[in-house]
Amino acid sequence: MQSVHTQGIWMAEALQKTLADYEDVWLFVTHMGDPKAAFLLCFPVTYYLSRRTGVAVLWVAAISEWLNLMFKWVLFGERPFWWIGESRLFGKNPPQVRQFSTTCETGPGSPSGHAMVTSAVCWVMASTLASFLYLHTRSVLLRAAPYLLYVVVLVAVGISRVFTLAHFPHQVIAGSLTGITIGVFLNRVVPEGRPLRFFFHVSMGLLLGSLLLYTGLEYFGINLSWSIALAMKWCSHLAWIRLDTAPFSSLTRDCGSMLGLGLAQYWKPGGWSLPWTPRALCVALSSMALYHMNRVALPTSPPLLFYSLIFIRFTLVPQVVMVFVPGLVHHLTAKKKKD
């Protein structure tokens, strides 16, 4: 792997030099490719366009991110920003690369979570849009357009992850291919209308499965905190080390969203039936609510409290999108019509 890693570093250097004038663009792309965007942005937008697609997006986002964590724990992938120093191969000819605020993630690097979750979630959206366009136009060209856009998005996210020195190119490719496979499969088994106990079992299964793997690896002498120590050692600004990039943050996000999805469908089976104009209002209100929820700073000490609050936050996300906001809009619009 040494030669693969070395070539990846030189590719990152070439990208940073070539695309330096578009730095803000690539930082924005990597921000939009963050798995959290699938929960906080893609989910509410798609839900009000198509209930089934929205549920599928949340389902695929949670499961693909959880699987990404399992793969990372098993594959022990390096990250470029710490491998440069740890390898000690560049003493006389160090690469001219920079770190950014999004560089210093603390989990292992393989496969790329940004690429894997983005490819899985965007497959759901692209395939749904392609089917819709073909059904209404019978145009093969229009049907192909969402898939072309899908490829462009994956390439852009992949470049942004290499550009920011967060991943090697092979990790991005592995994440993208794995995400596509997961998206195709999970899009066929969307748990729309399943009982609450199903989602409770899924949520607890994700939690217990990951804890079992973590405990098992630790029992055999494998220190799963190795990546956190390296990130803190080689990150150029310790302020860029954030607890919400730690592996257990994604785990609690996934478990919370699955339980929240079950609760939302339990409180309001079938959802609210709204015309298109109120749906647009729901998109705006939900997006604002989730934006401000995510901006609330959580105490990072003790870590258990932080992870518990992450779990609660993402349990509330489906409630906001599927119950609270559409219920409020339904009440207001129905009252207006009555008046």
From TrEMBL:
Superkingdom as given in the UniProt entry: Eukaryota
Binding site for substrate: R79, R161
Record has Transmembrane as a keyword: yes
TM region positions: 56-76, 115-135, 147-166, 172-191, 198-217, 305-329
Any one of the GO BP annotations: gluconeogenesis
Membrane-topology annotation of the record: Multi-pass membrane protein
Keyword tags: Endoplasmic reticulum, Gluconeogenesis, Hydrolase, Membrane, Transmembrane, Transmembrane helix
Active site: H114 (proton donor), H167 (nucleophile)
Subcellular location: Endoplasmic reticulum membrane
Start and end residues of each Phosphatidic acid phosphatase type 2/haloperoxidase domain: 53-187
A Pfam family this chain is assigned to: PAP2
Gene3D superfamilies named among the record's database cross-references: Phosphatidic acid phosphatase type 2/haloperoxidase (1.20.144.10)
Metabolic or biological pathway: Carbohydrate biosynthesis; gluconeogenesis
Protein EC: 3.1.3.9
Claim: Transferase is one of the keywords in the record: no
One GO MF term attached to the UniProt entry: glucose-6-phosphatase activity
Any one GO cellular component localisation term in the record: endoplasmic reticulum membrane
Family, per entry: Belongs to the glucose-6-phosphatase family.
Name of protein: Glucose-6-phosphatase
Record organism: Paramormyrops kingsleyae
